[in-house]
Structures are given as structure tokens and as C-alpha cells.
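re: ur question from earlier - yeah i can do the single chain one, its not a big deal. heres the input i used so u can compare w yours
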Amino acid sequence: MEKVQKRSGEIVTFDKTKITQAIFKAAHAIGGSDMQQAKMLTENVISILNQKFENQIPTVEEIQDTIEKVLIETGHASTAKAFILYRAERMRLRDVSKNADPAIDAMFGYKSKLFSLVPHEQVDAYKKLFYKLREWQSEQKVPFRLKNDYLGGNDLADNIYRNKYYVKDLDGQCIEHRPEHVFSRLASFLGAVETTQEKQELWSKRFYNILYKGYFVPGGRVIAGAGDLYRTKSLANCFVSLIQKDNIESIYQTAYECARTYSYGGGIGVDVSCLRPRDSVVHNAADKSTGAVSFMELYSLTTGLIGQSGRRGALMLTLDVKHPDVFHFVNVKKVPNWVTKQIVEQAKWSNMFDERQLLELERHVKENTQVRFANISMKVSDEFMQAVHEETVYGKNVVLLYKKNNKEKVTTAPQTEELHYSYGIPSKDITEYELLKTAETLEEINAMLAKEGLGPVTKEQLAEQTDRDIFGDFVIDVKGKDYDYAVKYAGDYMLYFGAPQTGDVKNLIKARELWDQFVAGNYDTAEPGLIFWTAMSRYSPSNYVGRPIASTNPCVTGETYIATEHGMQKIKDIAAASNPTMIATDSRVPLQIRNNDGTILLMEQQQKGVCMDIAEAVWSSGEKETYKLTTKRGYEITATADHKVMTINGFVPLTELKKTDKILIQKGK
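and the output i got, formated as C-alpha cells:
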């Protein structure tokens, strides 16, 4: 048998796997799972069909009748019953669909890219739920206005729905005509993810009701994209693309990610803080880098080229306030672009400039008036805002003496894979600095230092930025104490970028000067915006699930054995598999709750023994210095310094453990 006649009358190629799938689904509905049995029954069906329709083409209905017959005669009555119920449900849906909009039927028959992304079973469930909701609407089992007056005659609202949210066919014609159509699409598509038909119908109806009543409104991309089988759309509004490395490949990879995100209807944010500053060394034909800000135009133009329903995509570009290109960043949008064009054209008409001068003029003007298709925001730290405050309160030339309650002097902090500048160029924790004295002259500070046998600090030392740490402080080592002193002029702020390719790039500025330029730009063009990065990192919701915004990864060595659902495995093998893995964890490990002030509460758990939790991702983070921890009973682990070990008093970094600490091990000891 080679052909079969569909219900529409169309003759198509016979596919026996469809019979197998139909039998298996019916068996699966009552708890069966034997695919081989389904294949054997398929051969019985085909044998009967070949005898009965030797010189004829059977119809779909005749094939299904034969399936029922074989199932009953071979003792599979329960499977036959499930198959009969399946046929009845499909017939009911076909009857409902006859009264539906043909344009909707056409959408369900269209095979788009979405079918390669969403399981076929989910699409089938979506279709069934969609027609079920249409049936409920006609029977008034869910709210549905017989008159198309849900929007109350609001032409503006109707225009927004028509232009942004109603699904359109491939010719651009709306196939939805009222908000209730949108609600049924959303409810049925999102309800299809449930695991059983009962749950699918329950949650589709619930979701439809809360949408209709306005109790909940999804994001715009969900309303526009969920259930649209014609087009692949994003179901999220906002994304962030990380420029992985400071190289041309990563820069253009991010541009590609921007373009792809726009094509799916999303907006995107890109931070350029990881890119080397202007005039840094590059090892190509240019010799010098054009700087981080210059590449913002690439992302801006990408945004301008790809439309979204008649408008451009949304792009936010950010730069860390500590980046040496920050002055260029703050001023890049001060002059509107129509002014740019007029300046260049007027210069050409004036005959006052030669060709070289015109090119230089055009370069200079465009360099400071680009990035037309993006919003920009400056990521500011508490360190920067404190420097602004210092000059405002004490004056520009006042000398400040701080007590620095740590002994760490940070003279370099180059960007690495672990310390990616898009997570924030290192800034000091101002809570560890205590202002001891303000003075009009350096001599007053030196007199105070001399009482402790320290100093003196010279004007030349303060004037030389290489003698200061990356925060702009001249640090004085206080021997035998757990603190140091930091000397600076009020308002001093160090711009900094470090990388193996560029070395340390430092530029000591007055924070108030940058702040004033920011304020002026904001007054003129409402840009750039401000992102209070320290505060955002502190209050990020990710802190509450133990995933604070950070740039270090605690690690163990690749040879470390981990207890998994498959037995003991080396962690390097788990990483190579790239699959989520169930791992054994000690049930005594307390839950961690991170407070907004950075402190951590430990909530004890009463369970004992071992439980299985999922490790979503395990990866290699490079080569690092490691330490070996050995217990009295001979248990060992080799890990990095910042790897946290669970003690009876909570988690402690490996290198901070004391010999008297008692640690928990997986065996419950």
C-alpha cells in the first residue's frame, strides 16, 4: 500500500509510522510504554489493509476502523477504547473548527521555524485548547462579549491592539479582531505546557479569566508572540548581551546577537566597559584603538537597520564611570545629528577649509554626535559619588586623611575572564574608609602622621598618579596594625583600565568635573542616564537565591570526585558532558539568606542524611593556584582559595579555615 486518501480528498503517500504513533499514544494514555508492541500491531493493521484494499486507496477513516478492529481482536480492549475516545475528540474539534475563522485554521496548518523549537505534542495541545476555548466562548462558559465592545469604543486602544498585538497572516492581514481572541490564544498556548489534558484545560481556563478581567497583563512580547505560529518571536522584552572579550570577534558577535534579538522583537542592553580605551595599543594595521565609545555606533546602526512593526528596536548602551573613555561617553550625544550634518555642509560651502581640514572637521564632529539609535547610561559607583560629595562639601584643594580598615593596596586589577569589567571595574568599598581629618595644607596632615612615626607625604607624590592605587588614594602602610591610612585631595577620582594588552591605563581626575559634564548633557539632551551600580549589585534579587552579582568563581580541581545520580564522577567529566546532573548534597547544609547589608543568615534545616539536587551547570574556569584541605580522618579536597567549605558555623573560604574548625562531609559526619 503506497497511497492514502485524506478527509479533504487529497491523495498522499502512506506513512506507516503514523499508525504506530496512533497506537502508541492510545496505549500511553492508559499507562502503556511498549513501542515494540505498537510496531507489531502496526504490521497486523497493514496486512489487513493490503488484503482489503489490494487495488484501492483506503481513506483515513477506513485505516482508523482497521486499527480499532485489530486492537479489539488482539486483546487490547483498553487501548482500543482510548483510541476510540481520541477519534471522537478529533471529530469534535473538526466540527468546532468548521465554525472558526479559516485564517486561524491556515495558521495551524503552517509549518514555520517554530515547529523546530516547540515540541509537536505541545503544538497539538495548543490547537486542541484553542478550539476548546472557542467552544467555551460560544457556550458562555468563559466570559465573552457577544458585541465586540470589550474596549468600550476606545479607538486608540483598538489601534494599539491592531498594530502591536493581533496576529497577522503572511500577507500582513489581521487574523484576530478583538481582545478576547488574543486572550484565547495566550491562554491556550501557555496552558499547553502542562503535563496532562486535565491540567491544560484547567489552567487555560484560569489564565483566560484573569486576562479577561485584567487581573494580570503579560509583557508586550508575550501578548504579541505567544501562539503566533507564523513567526518566531521572543517572549521576553529585555535582554543583555555580554561582549565576552576585548577583541574584534567578540565585538561583532555581540552585534549579531543584537540583530537577532531585534528580529525576534526584543530589546537589548550592551555594556562596553570591557573594551580598551581610546589610543590604547592594538596589534593590527591601526596601531591604536579607537576606544570603547567608537564601537557604540556599530550597535546603534545595527539597531537602526532592523525594524520592529514600524519602529526600531530598543538599545541601551552603558559604560562604567571608572573607564578612561567616560568623558567621551558623557558627551557623545550632546549635539543632535541634524546639526552635525549642517556643520559639515556649511564648512564645505564656506571654502575656508582644505580637504584635509574638512576630513578632520567631519571626523571630530561625528565622533561627538553619533549613537543616534540608542539610549546611554553611565554606571556609577558609591566610590565615585563619594568623590563628588567630597569636593562639593570640602572644596577642590582640601587634603583628606582616611583610615582604611583593611591592609590591601590595589595598584593593579587587570581584566581577566574571572574579573570581567562589564560586571563592574573594581571600586573601593567606602564603608571601610573612615574620614579622620580634613586640612587646608599637606603639612597639617604630615604633622598628624608624624605623631605615629609616619610620613611625610610630599606634593610630588600626590601629584604623581602612578604612586596612587587604582582608587586614587596614596596609601600609607601602618606597620603592626590591621589598618592603613589613605591620603588624597577632595574629589580625586582615578579612571582605570587594565589588561595584558594595554597595561594599566590611569587618569586622575576631579569627579566633580565629570559630574558637571554629565549634568550639562542631561539638561541638553536628557542623556546619559544613571545606573547606581553599587546599589544595584547590593539589592539584586539574585542575592536572595545565593547568586549575587559577582565576578569570581570558587573552584575545585578537575580530578575531584562528586557523588552523582550515576555514582562517583570526576567533576571534569561532568563539565565535559554539559548536561544538568543530579548530585548528592548533605541535608544538614543550612539555607543561606543574604540581607541587603551584605550579612548572611543561616536557617537551619532539620533533615539528616543525603538528598539529591540538580547542578544546572559545571564548567572549567582556567588555571588557578590551589590548596589541599586534609581532615584528621584523612578526607581530602583540593580547591581554590575562595572555595567555600561548610562548617558547623556556616560556609568559610578554604584559606580562612582554622585547624579547630569542624567541617561537614557528605557521609553525614
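The two ends are 68 Å apart (CA to CA). not sure if urs matches, ping me
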